[in-house]
Amino acid sequence: MKTITYREAMREAMREAMRxxxxxxxxxxxxxxxxxxxxxxxxxxxxFGPERIRDTPLSESAFVxxxxxxxxxxxxxxxxxxTVNFSLLALxxxxxxxxxxxxxxxxxxxxxxxxxxxxxxxxxxxxxxxxSLEGWYAHIPGIKVLTPATIEDxxxxxxxxxxxxxxxxxxxxxxxxxxxxELPGNGGAVDIDHARTRRxxxxxxxxxxxxxxxxxxxxxxxxxxxxxxxxxIDLRTLRPLDDETFCSSVAKTHRALIVDEGWRSGGxxxxxxxxxxxxxxxxxxxxxxxxxxxxxxxxxxKHLEIAALPQPETIAAAARKMVRKNx
Amino acid sequence: MSTESAAQPSVVAGEHGVQxxxxxxxxxxxxxxxxxxxxxxxxxxxxxxYIGEEAVAVGSISCLGPDDAVVATYREHGQALVRGVSxxxxxxxxYGKLEGCARGRGGSMHFFDAQKRxxxxxxxxxxxxxxxxxxxxxxxxxxxxxxxxxxFGDGAVAEGEFHESMNLASLWKLxxxxxxxxxxxxxGTALEIEHSVTELSKKADAYNVAAATVDGMDVFAVEAAxxxxxxxxRSGAGPYFLECRTYRFRAHSMFDAxxxxxxxxVEDWKKRDPISTLxxxxxxxxxxxxxxxxxxxxxxxxxxxxxxxFAESGSWEPVQDLMRFVYSERRPT
Lengths: 327, 333
Description:
Chain A is of the alpha/beta class. Helix content of chain A is about 40%, strand content about 20%. In chain A, helix 2 links the parallel strand 2 (about 25-30) and strand 3.
């Protein structure tokens, strides 16, 4: 066991991948000399040199597309996009090429590419750097969408993603980079196919991912003091969703609260809710509830940003209401 | 920058000229058959014909080695045929049959062939350019001396992806041959309506990319310019931008009333038809007789007929395979 930050865990994952496999390289804006916008890749240039730690021009579409081309031709690129909002400049390449080529070519061309990007609000970065669009990406067949929340997943998911023959997007919530935690065991590759129960409980299931995992766990502590035992499910992977884990939790608790800082309309929370209706409707004691980000462009002012995101207090309040109504 | 003139008569007279004529006829007759089949409902979707532009694909793609890569556009029938993709597999693809070069999942706009290193068939204008940059980047990083030939039209030059890709390829000195088929129209929008600077090679200057402009109706001129371009790229000097000025004789796709150009303009360009002008030159040089030409036509007709038979006798991919290849079937253990 050792204590490291989420940022260091990501960096160690990249370092290990590049040491183990000469095909792996990193490219993106300011990943080299600057050390990464969020300092994730700091120090890697010194160890691996500019050919494998590639600073790119501000050309999201070209360097993401170049990552796809390099992946098609024998390399294992990690492409870093500064924030999820910037990834929209590369959406053509992600959707029309990365996600599509294998199927459209009749199985001839797979794209073993990993794209990492920062996501989420909470840092007062306002409306063009703070959104949570991972749910959008989870709409796209052909890619996988990972949302590591824990140190173990930050350390382990990259290796698994690089071993995957298909494109994998990793969304790193920017409020998690400084989070410290203990890294159990060897910190090696982790399973990316299953959600995890981060806290067991009997009264309701809180289904969440990313930064909201920690807010939900905090809410669960508050609730426990009041005698309400919440089970907290960390989805970890938004595509493909592990329906079985959250539906069996609902079968046990009979109450489902989905917490997602993304927008509510048409979001991943709607998808999870629909799947519960389809597979676990008769297990429910009351309707599925959702607590999502406010449907506004993210404001800068601290108090407004706090109000726009799920918080431990609002999560606890929503859970309390569900249990009391029906208890 | 230069505009190449026609090749020496001695070159034209040789076997080489006849081979070029043969390749251009293969594309022309294949596509004429495609039009029939489209009208008969055998081929559906968008279909973009290359008729009139054959000299570009023949003069350029024939210069590539088997290890080089080709990234093409949705108007790629010509490139695929010259590259050596089986005509039967191409026709079957247009039929939507399992035996097609993409199992019938791509259709006319999306031909793929891993063996021939043909990476599409890309129907997002400009979308293939970043891919080509990445293919070349991987070759460079793996120290494999290969070239990626990226074909696109004048329309793509207005896309951000063109500018981003030229810049990146030049910065990293990548072996990409940017081959611009300038047929003067982005769908129905004329060059001067879509570009503030209509001399497209000037845009290459902005990225410090070597460039040339060539008469795309003259297969030998294209070949000479392509060899020059390949020499540059293979030397490690970085990318090259080759603009071939050409013209599309047919409508943009099967849904085009051609309201945007005058019939007389089309007729004028047809006088420069790369096939009829070459066959006239070959005849006048004594390289080919009418009987030879007839033989050549028969050979091409047989190939087209065989392709149609192959497609007709092909099968439909079972519906239960619809979800195959959304993700790879071979998973890490």
